[in-house]
Amino acid sequence: MSELEELQKKVRKLNSRAGNAKMELHDLAEDLPVNWTEIKAVAERTYAVFAELEAAKQQLSALENA
After folding, report:
1. Are 7 and 55 spatial neighbours (Cβ–Cβ below 8 Å)?
2. Of 51, 41, 59, which is closest to residue 17 (Cα–Cα)?
3. Over the chain (66 residues), what is each successive 10-residue block's mean pLDDT?
4. Neighbours of 22 (CB within 10 A)
5. Distance between CA atoms of 41 and 36, rounded to whole angstroms?
6. What is the DSSP string of 8-58?
7. CA distance 47 to 43
């Protein structure tokens, strides 16, 4: 598998993880004030996956435009 294909696969997986994290955060917000103590942990996980996704997208764009 080429580097480009591997990065495309990584971006697809991260998109899925980001979608799941977004829904987890959304569900938590809907249930407030229940489990309010989980806000920080869920938000940090969501932030981390979106940051990783953004970095992978930038790498993919650079590779595609090289």
Report:
1. no
2. 51
3. 93 98 97 96 98 98 91
4. 13
5. 10
6. HHHHHHHHHHHHHHHHHHHHHHHTTTTTGGGHHHHHHHHHHHHHHHHHHHH
7. 6
Q: How far apart are CA 24 and CA 17, in angstroms?
A: 10
Quick one: DSSP state of residue 2? -
Residue 17 one-letter amino acid: R
The DSSP symbol for 6 reads H
Residue 6 and residue 3: Cα distance in Å, rounded? Answer: 5
The pTM is what?
Answer: 0.90
Region for 35 from its dihedrals, namely left if φ exceeds 0, alpha if ψ lies in -120 to 50, beta otherwise:
left
